[in-house]
Specification:
mainly alpha, hpI Integrase, Chain A, three-stranded antiparallel beta sheet, two-stranded antiparallel ribbon, 11 helices, 45% helix
Length: 288
């Protein structure tokens, strides 16, 4: 190879390296000095830890929670949580109920559409019908005391009544409200305040897991304890996904033991199986 050709190749290679170095320098300058283009803001990670699923408050805990809400909360909140269990509804569905939605002759309730689900009619169960009729016939009253500045401690009645004109059961009390009914966030904040002072006997850890969803979880837990088929329970709770339904109202170890012990067929089969193997009931020898 001639010397001129070698020099030309070296010149071209050096020029290529310089061009690549210059391009790399421009890119580094662009990323470090040039401002970032405006785009979609990134979501910040929440510092709050999730509390897990809502507790179904098994046994007497549900009634203890309702009594705690009635004694220390507001009457409308007590009725809303009670209806969330009786009708197995989300708290938003409860807050949108009207007195005119209850068809007492047909014993059913019209539920407004929510979460891409259309309006539906839910029948009143025989076990909840007396409680619903009592709410309609008798108002919920509770005497409250509160501090009113220079007026000192003031005593007043907190009353919730069933509307006679077919209007909303839980109308908004604010004049600047966009919606005619109470907001779900208001209900959630009220429950969050009340659960900090809820210390049930024998179950102190479940107090922080009480939510507005606990009534719905408790009804699904009642359905499972009564051995209602999952297909029927899913229709009543308006849950389409089987996995989601299995995660609601989970039965604890004590409830599981009670259901299995009351199953006569299972008990009989187990006794028969081990009666022959272990001779559990030996026959007594007759004495002359």
């Amino acid at each position: 190879m001639k010397n001129g050709t070698i020099l030309r190749l070296l010149f071209l290679a050096q020029k290529r390296v310089v061009c690549h170095t210059h391009t790399w320098a421009e890119q580094l300058l662009h990323h470090t000095i040039m401002p970032r283009r405006p785009g979609r803001p990134r979501k910040k990670k929440s510092s709050k830890k999730r509390l897990g699923k809502a507790t179904p408050l098994p046994g007497d805990l549900w009634c203890q929670w309702l009594q705690h809400v009635l004694d220390n909360g507001q009457t409308w909140l007590y009725v809303a949580l009670l209806l969330s269990h009786l009708l197995c509804l989300r708290i938003t569905e409860v807050l949108r109920l009207k007195a005119g939605d209850f068809q007492w002759k047909q014993q059913c309730v019209r539920i407004a559409p929510l979460k891409r689900q259309g309006a539906t009619v839910k029948h009143m169960l025989k076990g909840i019908l007396p409680a619903l009729k009592k709410l309609k016939q008798k108002s919920i009253r509770k005497k409250r005391t509160s501090k009113k500045g220079c007026f000192g401690v003031v005593t007043a009645w907190d009353v919730w009544k069933w509307p006679q004109d077919g209007s909303y059961l839980f109308p908004s009390c604010r004049t600047d409200a966009k919606d005619p009914v109470r907001n779900k966030d208001t209900c959630c904040k009220a429950v969050a305040r009340l659960r900090t002072a809820f210390f049930p006997k024998g179950a102190s850890e479940c107090g922080q897991r009480v939510r507005t969803h606990s009534g719905r979880h408790r009804m699904i837990n009642d359905l499972k304890r009564a051995q209602v088929p999952d297909e029927i329970g899913m229709v009543f709770a308006r849950i389409h996904d089987r996995k989601t339904y299995l995660g609601y109202g989970q039965i604890n170890a004590e409830q599981t033991a009670t259901i299995l012990s009351n199953n006569k067929k299972l008990t009989t089969n187990l006794l028969k199986m081990y009666d022959k193997h272990l001779n559990l009931n030996p026959k007594k020898k007759r004495t002359k």
